[in-house]
Amino acid sequence: VGTATACAPSQGAVAPSSAAAAPASAGVGTSTGTMGAPGIGDPDFPSDGNGGYDVRHYDLRLSYDPSSRKLAGSATIEAKAAQDLTSFDLDLHGLTVSRVAVDGAAASFSRSQDELVIEPAQRIRNGDGFAVTVDYSGVPEPMHDTANLGRYGFIATPDGAFVTCEPNGAKTWFPSNDHPADKATYDFRITVPEGLTAIANGEMAGTPQTTAGKTTFVWREKHPMASYLATMTTGKFQVRTGTSAKGLPIYAAVADSFRGSLDTLFTQTGKITDYWSTVFGPYPFSSTGGVIDDYAAGYALENQTKPIYGGFSPEPAIIAHELAHQWFGDSLSIGRWRDLWLNEGFATYAEWLWAEHTGQGTADSAFRRYYENAADPMWAYPPGAARADDLFSAAVYNRGAMTLHALRREIGDQKFFPLIRAWADAHRYGNVSTREFIALAERVSGKDLKGLFDAWLFQPKRPAPVM
Ligand code: ARG
Ligand code: ZN
Asked: What residues contact residue 207 under an 8 Å CB cut-off, 6+ apart?
């Protein structure tokens, strides 16, 4: 979208040459004949997502019982074939599949690790739309990666579940094309025992209905969403709804033990979302919000329309970070994980901008504080190529934010802020790459910025001082 002048950044020695290639995009993977590929083509996460089709919509009808920890229901996935398909995969971790149907006809299926391989009765033709329904049940098992990602995905709690899926935990609770390169809209129909609340993305449709001791919550996210941003967090929650000063609907929910934080969460969320819309351009979704669960994850996640805070009352800076992700990460999603600085560098820079806005120190002072520490391990980690074995490295966050500050100093505020707005606007609801950001920065500023980006994103050493 308007980035025809794209030039590949000159890659540093550590950046594999494939970093300059087009990102994985929906439905593109290496395929064998008419079998959809088991991965979407992300070189660092080869089995994540799938090839051969593009999901348009997920319709998830699920019930969860916290006492047995059992999840049961069905997922209907509406997709469009990107090649002829005699078989294709969905990602699914654990759980038991009882039936698969393609366009209403029973299909055969098999399981192999986290791939659900589906063979429809009829070959699907390239370009055709099709609907797959998967009936399944079982006790979801979260992903657990001690070295790097911690515990994520569907995590049972005493009264429900804490559901945060970055980078590839959506498959712990629904069959999906589990990679941000394939975004889709979502409908959720979630049934829980009466007295509990089920929280998903987007807005609630109608009022929750209770029959025979069970309540069903219907949520709809009508804007495209990456699978890792989907949630069905459930449990005992205190909820406050209303609108921001600018009229945007707000949904705030906190676990009982955080009831004292509900009003602050509600108020700050509205205020910060409104402020970011003056800095980054119009808010991309139809509501904003936040959820504090009592599961001590130790991290927050920018779930679309409803960031979640795992077991803590967030400081305004953290709320500012997660809400900045609604533009950078959620509306604009990366096409492969290596480009994660486009999410985390931007959201961390937003923390610095929030400090600047609230008179708590300038972005420049934050930049200098990091720059002065010549021994910081981030100098050995070029954030332009986030590593699968250390994905959420502080380098991706802080050196990523420093990259934006170095850019701001180089091109000035008069170009920098319009650039950020143009970036959010040009790729709204889409997928983005580092190459595209560099191209737009060069176009907006009229400067050759390859050296700057190469030094900040791709070299394993501290760049020369700015100015
Ligand atoms: N994107 C989140 C944030 O910075 C971090 C997610 C960490 N995920 C994980 N599996 N540990 O706001
Ligand atoms: Zn973040």
From this structure: none
185 closest CA partner among 173, 205, 201: 201
The rounded distance, in Å, linking the Cα atoms of 158 and 175 is 25
Q: Which atom of ligand 1 is nearest to the CA of 167?
A: 10
Q: What are phi and psi of 181, to 5 degrees?
A: -70, -15
Going by alpha carbons, the residue nearest to atom 6 of ligand 1 is 301
Report the nearest-CA residue for atom 12 of ligand 1.
301
ipTM score for this prediction: 0.96
Give the pair of three-digit tokens for residue 30.
């290496």
Give the tens place of pLDDT for each residue, 246-305.
999 999 999 999 999 999 999 999 999 999 999 999 999 999 999 999 999 989 999 999
DSSP 8: P
The predicted-structure confidence for 392-425, as pLDDT tens digits, reads as follows: 999 999 999 999 999 999 999 999 999 999 999 9
Q: In the structure, which protein residues have their CB atom closer than 6 angstroms to any atom of ligand 1?
A: 149-150, 152, 166, 299-302, 321-322, 344, 392
The tens digit of pLDDT for each residue in 206-259 reads 999 999 999 999 999 999 999 999 999 999 999 999 999 999 999 999 999 999
Angstrom distances, CA of residue 48 to CA of 42, 117, 138, 256, 396: 7, 14, 22, 36, 21
C-alpha span between 413 and 418 (Å, rounded): 8
What is the 42 CA–ligand 1 centroid distance (Å)?
19
Which H or E run contains 426?
helix 413-426
Distance set, CA 405 to CA 8, 86, 348, 363 (Å): 21, 50, 11, 7
> Could you tell me if 323 and 269 are in contact, meaning their C-beta atoms sit under 8 angstroms apart?
yes
Burial profile 381-391: b = 16 or more Cβ within 10 angstroms, e = fewer: bbbbbbbbeeb
- C-alpha distances out from residue 320 to 304, 343, 362, Å: 14, 13, 15
pLDDT score for 37: 97
Q: In Å, how far are 155, 235, 309, 384, 462 from 302, measured between CA atoms?
A: 17, 19, 9, 21, 30
CA-proximal residue: ligand 1, atom 5 (nearest): 301
Structure tokens at 155: 């995590």
Looking at the DSSP assignment, which residues form a beta bridge with residue 187? 59, 220
For ligand 2, a single-atom ion, the residues with CB < 5 A are 344, 347
SS3 content of the chain, % helix, strand, coil (to 5): 30, 30, 40
* Torsion on CA atoms 191, 194, 196, 197, rounded to nearest 10: 50
